[in-house]
Amino acid sequence: MSNSKEADETVSGDATPGTRPALSVLDHAGIVEGSDPGQALRDARELAQNLERRGYHRFWLSEHHNMRAIASAATSVSLGFIAEGTSTIRVGSGGVMLPNHSPLVIAEQFGTLESLYPGRIDLGLGRAPGTDPRTMRALRRDQTSSSTFPNDVQELQAYFEPAVPGQPVRAVPGEGLRVPLWILGSSLFGAQLAAHLGLPYAFASHFAPSALYDALDAYREGFAPSAQTEKPYAMAGINVCVADTDEEAERLFTSMRLSFLGILRNERGLLQPPVEPSTLDTMWRPGEKPQLDMMLRYSFVGSPETVVAKIDRFVADTGVDELMLSSMIFDKEARMRSYELLADAYGLEAPTSG
Description:
This protein has an eight-stranded parallel β-barrel with strand order 1-2-3-4-5-6-7-9, surrounded by eight helices. It folds into two domains: 18-179, TIM Barrel, CATH 3.20.20; 237-354, no CATH class. It starts with 21 loop residues before the first strand and ends in an 8-residue tail after the last helix. By secondary structure, the chain is α/β, with parallel strands linked by helices. The longest helix is centred in the C-terminal third of the chain and has 19 residues, at 246-264. It is globular. It has twelve helices and nine strands. To bacterial alkanal monooxygenase alpha and beta chains. Residues 35-321 form the Luciferase-like domain.
């Protein structure tokens, strides 16, 4: 098991070291059955506002394309809407799939966000397409574009540095702003790249958990200090679903299980209302339940006390510096209440004014 490391105060926007890691939220601006993208984005902003009041550290949106249930495809535009409605919580991408884009365009987009909302913007970067092969072609993404990801990250990083005399290409806005970068991944590749570049690392254990411990070890062992980060700073994704009772939380969590079942079957649709957990037992095809249980291994579901105990064990095992929480709860009020119950049980404190 990996050893716990104290949070690094040199990481841009990291949390104050304490007895427990900071809690942050990865949202997808999910479109539920009966809703639409505009409402999903307004719900996401309302959620971010509530999380800010409750003391959550970051609010990130994901980049996915051609998915009926996700409204955050235009990630930088969506983040501007979130940032405009909040004032203290950090706002960022979890992440921008960099091979889908020109590094210069991303530098300009996030340079604009940093110019408008200084000191609150994170730029998480991934190399996956975030979509299917046909949509990749529609994005004008080359099949080999992921192979240039390390160079693209460094090119993007350079655009955020102060311009030098005679520099022919400059990001405006962007140059000199040094927007903090994160490497996102679910394999050793991202861990090793983050270590090599001296960047904070976020592992997607909320849906691809198998390499979590190996990736954390590779990141920590190979880490080289940089101007942005002097010591390793690791974040891990987990799924949470909290309700007043374990039974009610398990029922609410069926919406997420149904969503992932649709992914397994390549039948992606809008987020569905919860069902009784026993209903799922009548739906499985051969091999589906073990595969789904593996994907959702790090899903902590139950009452506040149940979930906090599971989180504490996970942190003790992994030594992560921060947790990125994901939740697919159909009802907006139940989703907000889940995060509120967890904030109270975990001991989060609201930000102080001024």
